[in-house]
Amino acid sequence: MACIFNSLVGVLPQRRVRLAMIKFYKTSGDKLNRIDTAEEGCWVSAIAPTEEELLRLSTEVGVVPEFLHAALDEEETSRIETEDGQTLILVGVPCAEKHENTVSYTVLPMGIIITSRNILTVCLKDNSIISDFADGLVKNAHTDQKTRFVLQIMMRMSARFLQYLRQINKITSYIEKQLYGLLRNKELIQLFDLSKSLVYFSASLKANEVTLEKLLRGRVIKLSEEEHDLLEDALIEVKQAVDMGYIYSSILSGTIEAFSSVRSNNLIRVMKTLIASVIVLFIPTIIFAFYSMNVSGLPVPFFWFPLTLSVAAMLVAGIVLHHKKML
């Protein structure tokens, strides 16, 4: 089983150990560079910020404090808010982490804050979407083009959902093949975990779809024709991910139910066989106990008779139970 997980790790973002920090990036030419302080037209990335760092962002960058805290609540759902000329776009982003020979998938809220000067992203954990932008893997990402930069984040988020859904489907197919030979608790537990991940994905994707549709109306932020097309592409991918998540979730639920039924049937068969074996093996005990009593007048009081009777009775009982498909 390790081989399939190792193959998936090649396309999973490597987990990075980062302290709570704030980083600043700004596009110079066609390259995204790291800078030391916030400047006009820069992108501010906050990963698991502390209270002191939140205060710094609020005072130095001028971000509404409520917007900063919204993205740090794991229970928050996707939505759009506007206050004091600033816009908060809260979306759910997929995260994948490898643990030994398993991969766990979850969804975390990420806040995208648009101010008059900057773009900020706030998230509880480092994720592949932020890492792709920070590492310069996203082409034509210009921090001074705030609306386009936000839409590129949306596009990357949609593509990542699709990628992880395909990975979940591959892992599910592999586990199913392993379970055909032998039902084991470990594989069933992994299927349950994947089913839970699909539920989280589906709920987050539906909320993200509603958020993108609000953005598409153009009431929250003004969109050019090119930006409108880019947002439509992101929305199409989100809808595709919603459909894929629903299909995979239905298939996985049916698979888990089928394997659970097989497991129950196997248990019933084992219990039937065990009961039938006990019945057959208990026959000699009854006969020999009867002949061991200190009572006169027993029929054929010789040693060979109860032995022969026991064997005959066991054969008859075995044939009857076999006919009843209990043996």
Q: Describe the largest sheet.
A: 7 strands, mixed
The top-level CATH class of the largest domain is Alpha Beta
Under CATH, the topology of the largest domain can be stated as Beta Polymerase, domain 2
CATH superfamily of the largest domain: CorA soluble domain-like
Give me the strand/helix succession.
HEEEHHEEEEHHHHH
What is the terminal separation in angstroms? 35 Å
Going by CATH, the architecture of the largest domain would be 2-Layer Sandwich
- Range of helix content: 55-70%
Average pLDDT: 84
Gross morphology is: rod-shaped
Query: How many structurally independent domains?
Result: 2
- Which stretches of 5+ consecutive residues score pLDDT under 50? 13-20
Give me the Rg, rounded: 32 Å
What does this structure look like?
The structure is a single chain. Mean pLDDT is 84; it is low at 13-20. α5 (146-181) runs parallel beside α7 and α6 runs antiparallel to α7 (225-291). The radius of gyration is 32 Å and the shape is rod-shaped. 57% of the residues lie in helices and 17% in strands. It has a seven-stranded mixed beta sheet. The protein has helices spanning 2-9, 51-61, 65-70, 128-134, 146-181, 185-216, 225-291, 304-323; strands at residues 21-28, 31-35, 43-47, 79-83, 86-99, 102-114, 119-123. It folds into two domains: 2-263, CorA soluble domain-like (Beta Polymerase, domain 2); 266-323, no CATH class. With 327 residues, it is of the alpha+beta class. The protein starts with a helix and ends with a helix. The protein has eight helices and seven strands; from the N terminus they run αβββααββββααααα. A hairpin with a 2-residue loop joins β4 and β5.
